[in-house]
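Hello,

Our lab assistant flagged a job as stuck in the queue for most of the afternoon. It eventually completed. Since we weren't sure the result was trustworthy after the delay, we are filing this so someone can double-check. Below is the sequence as submitted and the structure that was eventually returned. Let us know if re-running is recommended.
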Amino acid sequence: PGCQNVSSGHEDVELIPKGSFSEMLKSLRGKVHIVPSMLQSLWTAMDKGEFFPAMWFREKKLLHFNGGLFREPKALAITDDQLELLIESAKADWRDVEPAIFGTLLERALEPTERHKLGAHYTPRAYVERLVLPTVIEPLRADWESVQAAAAQLANEDKEKQARTEIETFHRRLCDIRVLDPACGTGNYL
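-- returned structure --
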């Protein structure tokens, strides 16, 4: 039923307290009539960054989920069998699922006019790499190779301290690099 399992992935990356979504689903067995209102309440709390008054969320304030995904939370009614499918899918480890898959699913679920209004187009990983590799990664790798060569030469000249300084300077420069994800969608650019 739509994006109802979207919260399970948030649980895996600990954007919501670990185990909380799964426990909530299990507690709703035999009470599927309240599933839509529970999910809508959860999604409202995620949209606003508020507390979700349920014991599974351990009285923690939820993070604010930006991007408008939960701005108008509408959950569909489900059957007992569908709830069991959700519980089963919540057992999976969603951390290793390529984020672009969710972006593509969301993009295709939107009406074309809504998608255009939101600017909801998820760039495939191959396109991101085509842009990021030559502009960010390859220049950094080239710089790193130069630093390694300079450090090796200094080390061969018994200038260990200067070799170490060469590497530490590169490391500091690397730590100061900031990358702006132009869309802040699935984070593929980052």
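-- support follow-up --
The delay was a queue issue, not a problem with the job. The result is valid. Residues 125-156 form the longest helix (32 residues). The chain has a mean pLDDT of 81.
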